[in-house]
Every structure is written in C-alpha cells, then in structure tokens.
Design brief:
This protein is mainly alpha-helical. The protein has one domain (about 5-120): Serine Threonine Protein Phosphatase 5, Tetratricopeptide repeat. About 65% of the residues lie in helices and about 0% in strands. It is built from nine helices and no strands. α2 (about 20-35) runs parallel beside α4. It is elongated.
C-alpha cells in the first residue's frame, strides 16, 4: 500500500486538529505496522511507518510500550531504514536485538550493536544461543566478539 497525497493531507489535518498529535501518530504507526497482506499475514507497511516517523518525529522516547514495540517489530521485519530512524529519534536499540537475531537480520544486528544494544539485558535472552540454534553463524560470531569485548566480568 502506497501512501498518497490525500493520505498525507488527511493525517496533517487530523494532527492540526488534535492537541495530542504524538498519540495520534503513534496510533497510525501501530496500524501501519499491523497491516496484513491478502493471505492475512501481518507484514506491515514500511513506507507508511517511515513516512510517519520522518514527517512528524513523534515523541516516543521514554514511552516504554512504544520504545519496545516499535524497535522490536521493525527489527523483526528487517526494516533497516525504520530501525535507523527509530535510533535517530532516540529509541534504545536493545529491544530489537532478539527479533533481529531470531530472523537472521545481520545488518540490523550490527546497527543495533553499534548503537548500544546491551547483550546483558535480560530481555535479550540468550541471543548467542538463538543465533547458533538458528544456524546464523555470522551473527553468532559477531555477538560472541561483542560479548568478549564488552561483557567481561
């Protein structure tokens, strides 16, 4: 689904009318992330999500549900541009690590680690074990290297 000029104007009008614009945009982002294809599979609309993030720069930092959910879902789907935009908006990278590893998105794993994803965070689970069990040897090597460099105790 491509976003049209009509869609943009509608969103802009609703945002001007609504004093809680950030909440409105957050709702639109969630809807775009949850869009389904013809088979009913949830795949989202990356272009709409990216447009909303870039155009409106919603205040989602520090809103734990959004921090976690947006980064998790973008990482799980392999949406590199969206992950970068979320980081630029100030979201923590750690919530995206486990889904990126589970889905084998090496580029996103590297982006998240370069932006402070913490392998010691309990929400990451055993990402090295996940990478190995899924057969993602390159990802497990990257994670093991970072672990040895940053998590020595």
């Amino acid at each position: 689904m491509a976003i049209t000029t009509k869609d943009i104007k509608l969103i802009e009008r609703k945002c001007k009318e609504n004093p809680r614009t950030d909440m409105l945009i957050q709702g639109y982002i969630i809807q775009a992330m949850e869009m389904t294809n013809e088979e009913g599979k949830k795949e989202g609309d990356k272009d709409v999500v990216l447009f909303l993030l870039k155009a409106f720069k919603p205040d989602i930092v520090g809103k734990e549900m959004y921090d976690w959910r947006f980064m998790y879902e973008a990482s799980e789907r392999g949406w590199t541009d969206v992950v970068k935009e979320l980081i630029q908006l100030g979201l923590k990278s750690t919530p995206g690590l486990l889904p990126a590893v589970s889905e084998g998105h090496k580029d996103i794993v590297e982006i998240l680690l370069d932006n402070g994803a913490d392998l010691r965070d309990p929400n990451c689970g055993n990402v090295i074990g996940v990478a190995k069990s899924c057969g993602y040897s390159e990802i497990s090597e990257i994670l093991e290297k970072v672990w040895k460099e940053t998590c020595k105790e």
